[in-house]
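Practice problem 4.
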């Protein structure tokens, strides 16, 4: 099954293709199977306008070519399958975040809006407080939607400046979690796409951890953009012992892996009752050269 088959036109089995081959004056056909692990994934056909014996070494060359092309075809198929799987996973993640964030935020806002008129009549000061809460919820929902829309655009995470991305991220969490987040940005620096996406994802993961686990009442993000890029994320939450983080809590591991992939240094400091501080530093190529000199 793995070797090429040689046919003369009179013996060629594909009746549908015969008229086209005859029109092109093809008199001899070689069918080369494309195999991957002895599994047939396709074939390619060679035609000649003059019949001649096919030498053994030519058969061997065609067999090897069929195997190589078969591997390439299979790799392309697997790559396409992986892309489709990744796209489905990303859509699932965005749908889950939409449900967990925007939907719940809008549900809370609708409940407040429903009782606000009666509450205002009974207690005007409480009405003002609830009105402010409603404003924060709707602002947060809008920020959440903008964040999700940014992630749906393939190039948005590299086209939008990192400070603007972090501002949007903070706004969405302020509205959703009612957690005050202070963002400080110093300097300007255009980052390579992979570095910008890495710093954005690290910040996103850190803020999600703060909301889920820290019980913090405040978080501070400091981004310094100069020759080196320094990111600091602090909270005043309950803290933890880094050496005793359960294996199923993957947030810290993911942040460390992202930093390592960028060639950045990351440090995580935390103690029970003392909050947590995460610092990430990345130096661009030119500054690394200066340090080396």
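Answer key:
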């Amino acid at each position: 099954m793995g070797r090429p088959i040689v046919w003369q036109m009179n013996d060629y089995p594909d009746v549908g293709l015969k008229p086209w081959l005859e029109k092109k004056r093809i008199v001899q056909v070689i069918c080369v199977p494309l195999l991957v692990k002895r599994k047939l994934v396709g074939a390619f056909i060679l035609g000649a306008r003059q019949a001649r014996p096919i030498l053994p070494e030519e058969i061997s060359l065609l067999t090897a070519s069929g195997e190589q092309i078969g591997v390439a075809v299979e790799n392309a198929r697997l790559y396409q399958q992986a892309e489709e799987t990744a796209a489905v996973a990303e859509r699932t993640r965005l749908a889950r975040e939409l449900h967990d964030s925007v939907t719940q935020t809008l549900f809370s806002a609708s409940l407040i809006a429903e009782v606000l008129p009666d509450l205002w009549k009974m207690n005007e000061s409480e009405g003002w407080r609830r009105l402010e809460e409603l404003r924060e919820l709707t602002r947060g929902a809008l920020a959440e939607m903008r964040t999700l829309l940014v992630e749906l655009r393939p190039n948005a995470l590299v086209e939008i400046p990192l400070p603007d991305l972090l501002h949007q991220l903070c706004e969405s969490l302020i509205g959703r979690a009612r957690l005050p987040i202070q963002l400080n940005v110093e300097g300007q620096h255009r980052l390579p796409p992979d570095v910008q996406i890495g710093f954005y994802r690290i910040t996103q993961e850190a803020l999600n951890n703060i909301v889920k686990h820290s019980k913090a009442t405040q978080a501070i993000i400091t981004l310094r953009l100069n020759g080196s890029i320094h990111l600091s994320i602090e909270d005043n939450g309950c803290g933890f012992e880094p050496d005793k983080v359960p294996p199923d809590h993957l947030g810290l591991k993911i942040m460390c892996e992202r930093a390592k992939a960028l060639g950045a240094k990351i440090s995580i400091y935390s103690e029970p009752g003392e909050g947590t501080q995460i610092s990430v530093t990345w130096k661009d190529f030119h500054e690394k050269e200066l340090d080396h000199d």
